[in-house]
Amino acid sequence: MTLELQGIGVSRGIAMGRAHILFHNQPDVREYLIPAFAIEQEVDRFLDAIDQARQQLKSIRNHIPANAPADVTSFIDTHLLMLNDSSLNKIPVDMIRQRRCNAEWALQLQRDALINVFNEMDDPYLRTRRDDVDHVVNRIHRILADQEVADHEIPDGRLKGHIIIAEDLTPADTVLMQHQGIVAFVTEHGGATSHTTILARSLGIPAIVGVESVRRYVQDNEPLIVDGETGVMLLGADERTQYEYEGRLIAFREHISSLSRYKSQPTKTRDGKSVTLLANAELPEDVTTISSAGAQGIGLYRTEFLYMNRLSPPEEEEQLSAYRDVVEGMNNQPVTIRTFDLGADKTVDGGRNLNQTVVTNPALGMRAIRLCLSQPAMFRTQLRAILRASAFGKIKIMFPMISTMNELLQAKNLLEQCKQELDKEHLEYDHHIEVGAMIEIPASAVCAEIFAQQVDFLSIGTNDLIQYTLAIDRIDDHVNYLYDPLHPAVLRLIYMTLQAGKLHNVDVSMCGEMAGDPRYTRLLLAMGLENFSMHPNAILEVKQVINETNLNELPVNTLDIMNTSDPLELDLLLEKINGPSH
């Protein structure tokens, strides 16, 4: 009898293989008192564990193939940086000495404090960085408990062809197991924006997350089928079902292989409409992946990680160096840099928050442009760095979470002040640098026509726009099923923004996950979107859809989808839109 389990598909593809159930046996952490004479010995035990964790991660990094995507090593490097941060290697030491507690308990207390900070973050993408804290802390705990290296970290080939079943996975786990030949993974927890799922997409590993209590239903070595697009996992499939999925697996592999022919082709519909495909990025190292994917530039460069896991905000020269590396690496293709989208809950100064006010709901509090304007010195430092970097290539500046005209005018005024300062200092920059605003809350979409008169471009951030419109948290396992890009309210807000851009001759792009989902490409084209920005690995598939689309032959009722609330009717309309185009 076939058993079907449903989760969230986060990395497309079909996989067939036998289950390997992964248990991270976490030690039971309890507090006990350390005698005064043994305090420094306990400190040494903790620091030795930190060093062992560092050596383990370096060993993992050394096993990563040279041809692996650049973001693979960046995940490992993130964990190494965390081990070098005082929040993990110094504060627990202070606790051991002050409280005379054991190393495990001091580490656990600090872990809880850090997780609380991340749990309060409003940005789902950044909030999932709490996983990295857990992954690093768990590694140290296993070392302190004298547990052996996990079997999946031993490259003996035993995992080849297997589907990993786990509560959750670290990026390091994923890299190692991919190197050993796993064909997919299914986890009980995780979100679409976690490091692990981003990595799965980069490596082309089919993956499903959010399958509650999956380890209760699966036997070790049991045959499984995984569909990473629909989020379906099948156990005990009959011969007919197996045969069907074997055919789908072959077809999917052929499809992926065929995409390479689009890399050198221009992005243009069959009836001659040119479309711009850009990439999202957050690290200078991402440039290599972006260039190989055939992107026409960077539509969203996130700058938040320059500010996190450090004792103080980055200075102007450090930021200039990072931005210059990106823009020069893109060989004069445009790079849109978003000013920092931090919140009052994000620690950047050694444990104190940027804003000392207690935040009841950070999603509605001091974040993004609001925080930028409340911290003008830090904001000006970033604006100066971006302006100076514009002397080395094509850069655009984008302000996040604009909700009022006053915010936009204040930000533009600060930018003008920075330009005047650079003029006085005889420092070069692009005097005609373009300035844009993100449309990611309903208020800004409704007022897009007003904002369009004050900027050079607009960019729709669908991740936040959907969440704020529908009042849901997409990484909350209890409500993420409500996250719906096709909700009529969401589509109407997108359409209003596109129409505002058209009315005032202002470019409008989309940089949320919706832009990189080929299921929505034709609908967005029909709505008038001409600039897409997405994860580099999604570019060729979206490009294929665009190049095989004839806009003049899309169903005349395409935009009726904005007035449809019946889920079945929505599916039928989307299926019709995505049907063959001649």
Report a brief summary of the structure.
The protein has 582 residues and is of the alpha/beta class. It has 23 helices and 18 strands. An eight-stranded mixed β-sheet has the order 1-8-7-3-4-5-6-2. Strands 9-10-11-14-15-16-17-18 form an eight-stranded parallel barrel, surrounded by five helices. A two-stranded antiparallel sheet has the order 12-13.
Strand content: 5-15%
The global form is globular
Radius of gyration: 25 Å
Name of the CATH superfamily of the largest domain: Phosphoenolpyruvate-binding domains
Distance from N terminus to C terminus (CA atoms, Å) equals 42 Å
- Count of DSSP strands: 18
Domain module tally:
3
Residue share in helix: 40-55%
What name does the CATH topology of the largest domain carry? TIM Barrel
CATH class category label of the largest domain = Alpha Beta
Helix and strand content put the structural class at alpha/beta
Name the CATH architecture of the largest domain. Alpha-Beta Barrel
Low-pLDDT runs: 344-353, 355-360
Largest sheet: 8 strands, mixed
User: Mean of residue pLDDT?
Assistant: 86
| Number of helical elements | 23
Strand order of the largest sheet: 1-8-7-3-4-5-6-2
Coiled coil: 401-428
Domain PEP-utilising enzyme mobile: 160-231
Cofactor: Mg(2+)
Subcellular location: Cytoplasm
